[in-house]
Amino acid sequence: MSSFQSSLISEYHCFNCDADNPSVLKRKSTRNAKKIDYVALNNGEELRSKDMHRHIERFINFENDKPFDQLVHIIEEDQFNKLDDNYIENLIQKYHSKKPILIKRINPNIFPKNKSKLNLKFPQMSVSDITKVIGEDRPVEVMDVLTQNNSTSWNLGHWRDYYNKPFEDRDRIRNVISLEFSDTELNDLIDIPNFIKSIDVVNELYSAGIIDIKPKVSKYCLMSVKNSFTDFHIDFGGTSVYYTVLKGYKSFIMYPPTADNLKSYENWCLNDNQNSTWFGDLIKPIEQQQFLDKDGEDYYYLNNGLKIDIEAGDLLILPSGWIHSVYTAQDSVVIGGNFLTVSSINTHLKIFEIEKITKVPEKYKFPNFNRIMWLVGYNYLKNGDTGKLSNDEIDSLKALLNFYKIQYNQLYPTKTESSNSETTKKTNSNKNFKQVLKNSIPTGVIGSISQFINDLEKWIDSINHNKELTNGNKSNGEYLKRKIKTEDVSPSNKVKKAKVK
Ligand SMILES: O=C(O)CCC(=O)C(=O)O
Fold first, then answer.
1. CA contacts within 13 A on the Cβ side of 497
2. How confident is the model over 136-177, as pLDDT tens digits?
3. Quick check: CB of 324 below 6 Å from ligand 1?
4. According to its UniProt record, which protein family does this protein belong to (predicted)?
């Protein structure tokens, strides 16, 4: 410890004792004494308080560089009379990755006079109420805010006791952001808005009978104490998020998933100094309007990031693939959930790739993502109506087709490809990679991979002809002219129901 650091301490307790009985900084009142983070200090980092993540100051000082209503699509109470599920669904489809949507004071359990026709069911509940409904013994993963590491040794009873302590009696700042409760009794008390259910890809596959178990990602209860901070991240699979505050107050800073920003994000994740680097410093500023997309939205206009405050009763729709961090200024309870949409498939696939490159552990990925992506194409081929597809859907199908082809080529490289490929020289890891990939493709449902790709390609071509689309990667129908190999023909292609675990 430097002499400067020791000069700040009036009563020193060693690292081992500090957890129960922290060192006291020189201050008038011991009640307000700062708790030193000895975990960080021991790792050679600077002296700092356990109550404050190092980036909170940067977060608080961040200011939007443009008027708020140009950065976010805001819906206020005076627009509620036109608000129904269709209206919001169309907005989400229109913006998909492009703009966050914030609906102010929409929760009727908090604002009973609100006149919207949305079916929101988000009752106000305390952490004690939630614990009573779910059960004290339910294990819960708890994030230590300063290190951003998760601990699995907690249950809800312990968490409630921690959360209900006054601020100054909490040993460290901790946050719960991954308690999915759709398999608990809380599930019946809370309902996802219809406008989310109707565009959620997983829901669509479930309704079509293509999967019979849904991945558990749609209902999370987040319980954060004052001064919680979640560093920048992208939600798994580039999912969109609905997020509503039941109690307290939350602030987001977010950046759109432009190619440059995603590259910066990837580099930041792979950097040894990730924790000490403020992600916003890696964003290349764009001063001037770049271009308008086909809906007239200037996606790049938002590039410098934006900050959104969310109060109790508000609902945020975070678009697909956005890079965000979250600060909690007051003890808060939030309900949120993740969903994949067809219009954002391109972004989902990009983020899936980044997760591979940055080696995100399986546990933190969207469950069975690859399998679901194949089943989306299968569902279109089986149930889609070529006459009714939007241009966004067609673009997404083309992206999916390309994604399938890449995987097919990884599984069955041509002779030239395999002799050129560096990876095939690492025979064992390559075999393992292929096995994992093969297991994640639902051949029990789609049948032969090559036949499926051929059929889908022909189907997409037929839409192209009907719509006389000339832009995009128009397929020439030339793929897979080579002979279909026997080993990729599933023996069980009559089984048409997949299980998602
Ligand atoms: O509320 C938080 O601290 C983090 C929430 C979040 O970013 C998420 O769940 O993706």
1. 7
2. 999 999 999 999 999 999 999 999 999 999 999 999 999 999
3. yes
4. Belongs to the JHDM1 histone demethylase family.
